[in-house]
Every structure is written in structure tokens, then in C-alpha cells.
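Much of what follows relies on a compact textual record of a protein's fold. A complete example follows; check for yourself that the lines match position by position.
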Amino acid sequence: MAKSEERRYEKHFIPLESDPEIFNQLIYHLGAPRSLAFRDVLSLDEPDLMPHPAIALILILPTTESYEATKAIEYAAQEEYQGKGEDEDVMWFKQTIQNACGLYGILHALCNGEARSRIKPGTPLARIVETCTPLAPHERSLELENSDEVEEAYNKVALLGSTQPPEDPEDEIYYHYLCFVRSHVNGRLYELDGDCKGPIDRGSAPAAGDDMLGVSGLDIIRACLNRDRGNPNFSLMALVLQ
């Protein structure tokens, strides 16, 4: 969660460790098919260390002062998002659960792009998409916040990591999760961050044959890292088809 934000939260989650195995356990509890899995991206420059085909990316960043300052300038002119409905380019969730950045990143990856078409009917994920599609962002956030299914699935995996959770659940964790995904409607690349005012269109569709770890996707990741002057303390996961 960004430390520049001053919000009051009604619900607080244990932070989710940025481990692909933990992420995978959560998505399967939510009803994602086994044909989807998160994998670590170990390099931005060596193709052999990039998992393919990548259909979404989740970038985990420390929320340093330089990152927050650059982001604030970039997003200052952004208008509050009001999109909803079947014609919405991407499904975006405003974050209203403290320290649940990982969950929001996962939902942004699964509810958009290629993954969206693979959601199995009758699962918690399917119900999230069906229920939230017609809702305005504020109502959508409340629907997610009040979902017992989502909270139950999250709690099954939240304590599996090796990192000690904070003693006080209201303590801020100064790492943040950003999702990058191709729209299932117009094919363009979007940055989805529940701490922002809405989804951010990051450019035209990737070239034919490229996935999210092609030239377009990697350029977006590098540009995002430059907000923090190349801070090496980041990690990247890809949602891949397997």
C-alpha cells in the first residue's frame, strides 16, 4: 500500500507474500483453472528466463518516496473512473481493503484479458465478474469487500508465506502490486492499480505473436521502474498459460 495515501479502512487483510506458489493456491481456491499459473520472471533482458505465454504481469515495488512523488505527478490529471458494464475495456477494482494489494493484483489479472475467458462457471471468480460487471466502481469495491467467498479463500493462504505478518493488521506494508494486462475488449495494454483513480491505458496492442513479455510489455515495465530511478528492489510475476 502506498504510504502517501491517508485512508480509513473498514477491513484489513494479512499481506500476501509475493510468492508464485502462494498466488497459485489463492487463484485455485477462487476457481481459476489449472491451465493458469503464476511464474517468477527472473530477468527483463534474458529471454530464456521469461515464462511464456504470459497473459498478465504483476509488478511488486517498494513504495519509496521518489516512486510516490513521481507517481503523484503522473496521476494528478487522471479523472476518477466511472466505467462499468459489458463494454468496459477492463474490469478495475478500487482498493478498499488495507494491505490486500496482492489480492487486487490477482483479480485484475484474472478478470481481464485471456484469463477472463477461462474462468469456470459457478466459481467465486465467475460470481465476481457476473456481479461486479454492471456496478459502478464504488459499488464494485463494496461488493468485493463484503464477499465472504473471497475472504475465506484469501485466509486459507495468507499465512503460508515465510514473512512474519505485522502484529497490528492496520500497519501499512510499504510494497505495492501493479497489474499489467491486455484488454479483452480492445486489445490495448493497461496498468491496473487499485490505489489510483482508475485503469491507465499504456498503449496499443502488442505486435502479432507477442505476449505480455514481448517488446511492448517489457517497455511498460521498464518505464514503471524508472519512476523510482531504476530501484533494483522489485519482483515480477507473470500469469501464464500452461
Q: What stands out?
A: The chain has a mean pLDDT of 89.
